[in-house]
Structures are given as C-alpha cells and as structure tokens.
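Structure (tokenized):
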C-alpha cells in the first residue's frame, strides 16, 4: 500500500485561498483524488484526476474555485482552493488508486481508491 501524506491545511477567513499537497511514497503514480468530510457528514469527492492528468472531475460545489493537478515526477497531487467559504470547512483526504486503472480514467467513489492519507483540516471562518 502506498503511503500518502497531506499538508497545507489551516484556518483562514472566507474568501482566502489555500493549497493542499499530497505526497506519495515510492511508486505513487496513479489515479488521484481529494475527498472531504465535515463533522456529521459523509466523506465526499471534491476532485479527481486521471493518471495522465488529462481528465479531471470536480464536484459541483467547488467548480470554478478549486483546481487539482498532479506532478507524476514528484509523486504529488495538489489542490488549489480559492474563494473559500465556511461550507468548505472539513477534513480533506488525499486518495490514490495504484493498480487496475487506465491512463485516462478518474474515479469518484471512495471504494475505487486503495490508499488514503490521514487528512488535513481546513477551517474557513465567516
């Protein structure tokens, strides 16, 4: 199993930006996604990117504000979050799928991923 480590969370005011980073160990070059989980709610997909970086999915709630990108050479995936709002407050998790995938597919279900980070907290104050 690939180890994933997130960084970049924090406490910001509404309208601010944050960039989350997820680094993988070893051969961590797969299909990547970011999920988030707010207190009392289910973990939900935020964004996902195919192995080749060409196909990207965004949840409707973050379209136009968040950008996912991956750097295969560094085994890393980034989530740039702009115009943050209080409803974006959650623990953000990096997820990876490192087997049985095609170069152009992304995945939006939790069950599709085989590796998870520990999560990083993002808190947006109003």
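Design, position by position:
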């Amino acid at each position: 199993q690939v180890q994933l480590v997130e960084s970049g969370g924090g406490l910001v005011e509404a309208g601010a930006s944050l960039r989350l980073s997820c680094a993988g160990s070893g051969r961590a070059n797969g299909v990547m996604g970011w999920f988030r989980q707010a207190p009392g709610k289910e973990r939900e997909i935020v964004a996902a990117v195919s192995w080749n970086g060409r196909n990207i999915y965004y949840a409707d709630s973050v379209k136009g504000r968040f950008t996912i990108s991956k750097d295969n050479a560094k085994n890393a995936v980034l989530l740039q979050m702009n115009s943050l709002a209080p409803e974006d407050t959650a623990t953000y998790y990096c997820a990876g799928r490192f087997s049985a995938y095609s170069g152009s597919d992304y995945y939006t279900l939790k069950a599709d991923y085989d590796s998870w980070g520990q999560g990083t907290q993002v808190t947006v104050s109003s």
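Reviewer-requested clarification: The longest strand covers residues 90-97. The chain has a mean pLDDT of 93.
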